[in-house]
């Protein structure tokens, strides 16, 4: 087996892909032939033992490396870590589920190594390609819609800017890394909009069906895409996570009002008891939605962590509410117009809740 320094690092982000790894490595080895390569499995601490399976494979094949991430999640950030962890001059990103064909890797490498293009992209939508492996008709429609928006953002005539299978120089990735958000799962879109305009070569990809396991993208594809769009467009003005936190907070206000109206106006509960119940329901709703969306890359998992996180979030929001009221009252008594005073109080409370909960709820309880 060759021990030469690798020409190509193949970055494979994983989450619960144990059964797919061994056959994927066999396919990569067959496709790469005499080209020196390494596969870097970047695993988000999968519950099914994917990282352990990768280590088992690495014991007999030194071309396999493993990065097991604890407390961090997300396909894009995993790919960035993997590409920055290799000494190979070129890196490819591909999925572990066998929907991406490793036989395209040599041709993709030739395109970039020959300077024919800065980035080689496997496309489902050029002649010879196919999107038949998409899990549903709805996902195919969503992918086409997302691609149209992405083409406008990247200013490149790509047929598949949302592809998750691409190859480029690692030096370029390292140079761009400080500008990449690492949010969401479409890293190619982030790369193409982060710096100078890059030349792209597309190769036809027959997008296959997943070999084993279940797709993790169907439930979050729209949310992740919209988050990526926001981050690239406005993230430097208002941080993306804070914008998500504020959006969840606004939804929580609607939940609070709905519960208060139900208990106080329809069921005849006392206003004090109805307000307390509405506050607890709204806080719980905000905690759940923030844990699922805003902090999905640091999500609290397990009953003990969730309960501790919920308690910490409620305490944080209670202090934030006090700061909100205190600041608004102080400003109003000093002659500031009441509506402006209230808005200042809301902003102070929101910033407090965001800063403290980010550190002590989704930072400590992991």
Give a summary of the structure in a few sentences.
The protein is an alpha/beta fold. It has helices spanning 18-32, 50-60, 75-84, 105-113, 137-154, 170-176, 187-194, 221-234, 240-266, 271-294, 303-333, 338-360, and strands spanning 8-14, 37-43, 64-68, 90-93, 119-123, 166-169, 200-204. The protein folds into two domains: 8-234, Spore Coat Polysaccharide Biosynthesis Protein SpsA, Chain A, CATH 3.90.550; 242-360.
Descriptive account of the structure:
By secondary structure, the protein is α/β, with parallel strands linked by helices. It has helices at 18-32, 50-60, 75-84, 105-113, 137-154, 170-176, 187-194, 221-234, 240-266, 271-294, 303-333, 338-360; strands spanning 8-14, 37-43, 64-68, 90-93, 119-123, 166-169, 200-204. The model has no long low-confidence stretch (mean pLDDT 83). The chain has a seven-stranded mixed β-sheet, sandwiched between helices.
């Amino acid at each position: 087996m060759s021990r030469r320094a690798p020409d190509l690092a193949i970055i494979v982000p994983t989450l619960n892909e144990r059964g797919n790894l061994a056959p994927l490595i066999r396919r990569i080895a067959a496709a790469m032939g005499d080209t020196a390569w390494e596969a870097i499995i970047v695993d988000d601490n999968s519950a099914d033992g994917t990282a352990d399976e990768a280590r088992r494979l690495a014991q007999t094949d030194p071309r396999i490396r493993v990065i097991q991430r604890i407390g961090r999640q997300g396909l894009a950030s995993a790919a960035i870590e993997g590409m920055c962890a290799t000494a190979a001059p070129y890196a490819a990103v591909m999925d572990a589920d066998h929907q991406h064909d490793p036989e395209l890797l040599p041709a993709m490498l030739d395109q970039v190594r020959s300077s024919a293009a800065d980035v080689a992209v496997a496309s489902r939508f050029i002649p010879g390609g196919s999107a038949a492996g998409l899990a549903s008709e709805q996902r195919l429609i969503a992918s086409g819609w997302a691609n149209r928006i992405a083409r406008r953002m990247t200013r490149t005539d790509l047929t598949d800017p949302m592809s998750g299978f691409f190859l480029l120089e690692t030096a370029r990735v390292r140079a761009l890394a400080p500008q990449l958000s690492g949010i969401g799962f479409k890293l190619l879109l982030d790369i193409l909009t982060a710096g100078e305009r890059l030349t792209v070569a597309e190769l036809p990809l027959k997008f296959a069906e997943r070999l084993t396991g279940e797709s993790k993208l169907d439930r979050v594809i729209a949310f992740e895409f919209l988050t990526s769009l926001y981050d690239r467009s406005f993230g430097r003005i208002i941080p993306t996570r804070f914008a998500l936190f504020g959006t969840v907070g606004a939804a929580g206000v609607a939940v609070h009002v709905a519960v208060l109206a139900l208990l106080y106006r329809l069921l005849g509960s006392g206003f004090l008891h109805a307000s307390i119940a509405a506050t607890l329901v709204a806080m719980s709703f905000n905690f759940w939605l923030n844990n699922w969306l805003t902090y999905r890359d640091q999500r609290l998992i397990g009953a003990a962590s969730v309960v501790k996180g919920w308690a910490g979030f409620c305490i944080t929001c209670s202090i934030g509410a006090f700061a909100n009221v205190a600041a608004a009252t102080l400003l109003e008594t000093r002659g500031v117009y009441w509506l402006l005073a209230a808005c200042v109080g809301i902003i102070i409370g929101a910033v407090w809740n965001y800063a403290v909960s980010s550190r002590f709820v989704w930072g400590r309880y992991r």
